[in-house]
Amino acid sequence: MPQLNMVQAINLALREEMERDGDVxxxxxxxxxxxxxFRITEGLQTQFGPERVMDTPxxxxxxxxxxxxxxxxxxxxxxxxxFLGFIYPAVDQISNHAARLRSRSRGRYTCPLVIxxxxxxxIRAPEHHSESCEAIFCxxxxxxxxxxxxxxxxxxxxxxxxxxxxxxxxxxxxxxxxLMKEDVPEGEYVVPLEQARVVQEGKDVTVISWxxxxxxxxxxxxGFDAEVIDLMTLNPFDEETVYKSVRKxxxxxxxxxxxxxxxxxxxxxxxxxxxMMLHLKAPIARVASYDVVLPLPKLEDYYMPGTERxxxxxxxxxxx
Length: 320
Known about the structure:
Elements: E1 3-4, H1 6-20, E2 24-28, H2 44-48, E3 53-55, H3 60-72, E4 76-80, H4 91-98, H5 101-104, E5 114-119, H6 134-138, E6 144-146, H7 151-163, E7 168-173, E8 182-183, E9 197-200, E10 205-209, H8 213-220, E11 226-230, E12 233-235, H9 239-249, E13 252-259, H10 264-275, E14 285-289, H11 300-303, H12 307-318
Parallel strand pairs: 2-3, 2-4, 4-5, 5-7, 6-7, 10-11, 10-13, 13-14
Antiparallel strand pairs: 1-8, 6-12, 9-11
Helix pairs in contact: 1-7, 3-4, 8-12
């Protein structure tokens, strides 16, 4: 079994699914000849040709709009947006068309579209290259939002996303692309969407995170009897796994990279307050980035939640 980083695992998932299903196509800026800005689609155009791996103009709305048309008529497009901060021109297409196609057509059409895009700070890039605005898409009924935390889960979740009949926003942490390697099986395996995983069991406090922040969380919980949950799919999130853990621990700390106000951590917090109030022993804590425009690289590490901020929240929760 090969040891792969996340770049290699996603490339393998795309390659294997394109071999298995001739309806899968890849499109985006520089995804063909250059293999994408992070080289995730490297070699795919050589193997499958320019009709299935298409270089597009620098037009995010056009990329997604064309993909929606392809999906409606039977293809399974995997569109790449170079960075999450560039996706805003395509929000109209995602919200008004991709998310609504099944409802608008009363089920006659579905939209099996995956939009892949890197997100997050930590690689010393300019501001629009480092966004973490996943909550925008979680607010859109009809859109699934997936954020893998490791190479193994990136491959399995991407295969499930491509096969899903509805549109999926698949967010890949730039910090995780080459941070680590792990065993990634060749051949088919899928990780179900809408299913969280308990990474570490504990009995005193539940810590919920996703994407890169999961790894920072695992560093921060040392010394605490913490149950750590990797959400993986944010919308719809795995209520059963989360609520089961909170019933056991009675304390919750949610860690995310996005700005705090309106983040998905806020939605989780509200859901827990509604459903788990009688099981809570302490206020729900959110550890997030600050409510400012993402700063230039010198302040990135201050902007993002660090282990000290997470540990402080854990210590405060344990006081109750």
